[in-house]
């Protein structure tokens, strides 16, 4: 018998506003539905209590700028959501459960490698924090993240864009029609992780048949070829036909089939804002599918108000998209800065808009090309038009000696007297060490 873990954290004391889609009662009806259906009485269901992530867990995956202390007053709910993902993920790796579902809010997949605030309702990236915790503490090497939220998982992509041991796949409504305006087939990974990012932008109106066709004919073969140790589903539910923020046509039963096809080790809740019309039924179908129970009887009260794109219309679109994806070749810009360590450094400007708070982050990303590891990452980041910058230096998991030394050299240069650098973070993922530097407060290890 399967043993399915459930961790429910509705964060009833956190919201972005009484009328905001991401508000206190978002999971209220889901909670009631699961109790009514007796889900927690199933013999294969094991309940877990929420857990709080540490600041070290966060900084292993993300830099909080200008300093972590500038965010601590607003992170309570986010730390519990991330910690809950860690707890259930660790239970899966230890064999305590067969699979699990983290039913927690706030969501996180729009939060990237550098964090200045909340964007897309997200401040901390729950899946990224989970993944790096498992790699640092439980020996997991290769992980696949399949993001089925209606919005492109741009934050998760950003964090793992240069990591060859994390396969990131995102199925989402075409970015030309929906926030965040990214997630196209040419976004395939950095110089040391080319083709480890797969974006599948789908046209508005895509329903159950279209999603299942894409999974069976593109996503599942790619997962099989990668052969991950663990599959995580960023289980956004805003593809539902009643969701107020998007234009897709998935049903609750369609979500159940997605879960059945993917067979994720862990599903982590992301978006989904049809609080009464979709979430109770979608979450029920997903849980039943994870637990090996029949989900086909789950029906939402509303009926489809608009026609779904037919499979005959979806097939040629997907086939053409696959051709485009296969023909795209890497084109990277080499820019070697005088003080950079030896090697070729790929330059990638990366502006980020924080829609929740209305400001722009300007980023200059540099990645050391390497044939042996993921490569050292160096990021200069500024909020809006500020002349003061913060810096992230990342020494990756399984770093080769040259990239490890390059990271230390850049970190040493960062601490020299400078008029325009405020703070920095060194993520030494190789040895699981974290160092924070501030121009006024100096250096400290976390």
TrEMBL record:
GO molecular function, one term: histone deacetylase activity
InterPro entries: HDACs, His_deacetylse_dom, His_deacetylse_dom_sf, Ureohydrolase_dom_sf
BP GO terms, sorted: epigenetic regulation of gene expression
SUPFAM superfamilies documented for this protein: Arginase/deacetylase (SSF52768)
Domain of life according to the entry: Bacteria
Record CDD domains: HDAC_classII
Domain Histone deacetylase: residue ranges: 75-276
Family: Belongs to the histone deacetylase family.
Protein name: Deacetylase
Species of origin: Desulfosporosinus metallidurans
Lineage, opening ranks: Bacteria, Bacillati, Bacillota, Clostridia, Eubacteriales
């Amino acid at each position: 018998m399967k043993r399915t873990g459930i961790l429910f954290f509705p964060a009833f004391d956190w919201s972005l506003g009484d009328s905001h889609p991401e508000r206190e009662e978002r999971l209220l009806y889901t909670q009631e539905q699961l109790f009514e259906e007796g889900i927690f009485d199933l013999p294969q269901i094991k309940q877990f209590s929420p857990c709080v992530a540490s600041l070290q867990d966060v900084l292993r995956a993300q830099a909080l700028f200008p300093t972590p202390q500038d965010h601590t007053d607003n992170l309570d709910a986010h730390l519990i959501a991330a910690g809950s993902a860690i707890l259930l993920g660790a239970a899966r790796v230890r064999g305590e459960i067969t699979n699990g579902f983290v039913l927690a809010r706030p969501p996180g997949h729009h939060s990237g490698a550098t964090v200045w605030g909340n964007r897309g309702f997200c401040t901390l990236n729950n899946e990224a924090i989970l993944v790096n915790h498992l790699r640092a503490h439980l020996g997991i090497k290769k992980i696949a993240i399949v993001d089925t939220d209606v919005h492109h998982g741009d934050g998760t992509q950003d964090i793992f864009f240069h990591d060859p041991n994390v396969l990131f796949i995102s199925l989402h409504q075409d970015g030309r029609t929906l926030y965040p305006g990214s997630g196209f087939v040419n976004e395939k990974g950095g110089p040391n992780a080319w083709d480890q990012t797969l974006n599948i932008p789908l046209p508005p109106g895509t329903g159950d048949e279209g999603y299942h066709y894409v999974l069976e004919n593109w996503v599942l073969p790619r997962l099989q070829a990668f052969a991950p140790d663990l599959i995580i589903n960023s289980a956004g539910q805003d593809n539902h036909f009643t969701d107020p923020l998007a234009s897709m046509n998935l049903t609750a039963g369609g979500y159940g089939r997605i879960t059945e096809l993917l067979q994720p080790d862990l599903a982590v809740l992301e978006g989904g804002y049809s609080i009464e019309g979709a979430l109770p039924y979608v979450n029920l179908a997903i849980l039943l599918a994870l637990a090996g129970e029949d989900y086909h009887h789950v029906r939402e009260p509303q009926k489809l108000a608009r026609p779904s794109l037919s499979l005959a219309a979806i097939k040629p679109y997907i086939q053409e998209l696959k051709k485009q994806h296969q023909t795209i070749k890497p084109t990277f810009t080499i820019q070697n800065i005088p003080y950079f360590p030896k090697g070729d450094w790929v330059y990638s400007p990366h502006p980020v808009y924080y829609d929740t708070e209305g400001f722009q982050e300007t980023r200059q990303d540099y990645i050391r090309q390497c044939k042996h590891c993921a490569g050292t990452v160096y990021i200069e980041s500024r909020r809006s038009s500020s002349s003061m910058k913060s810096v992230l230096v990342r020494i990756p998991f399984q770093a080769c000696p040259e990239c490890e030394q390059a990271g230390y050299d850049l970190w040493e240069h960062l601490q020299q007297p400078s008029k325009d650098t405020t703070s920095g973070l060194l993520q030494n993922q190789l040895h699981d060490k974290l160092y924070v530097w501030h121009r006024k407060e100096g250096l400290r290890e976390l």
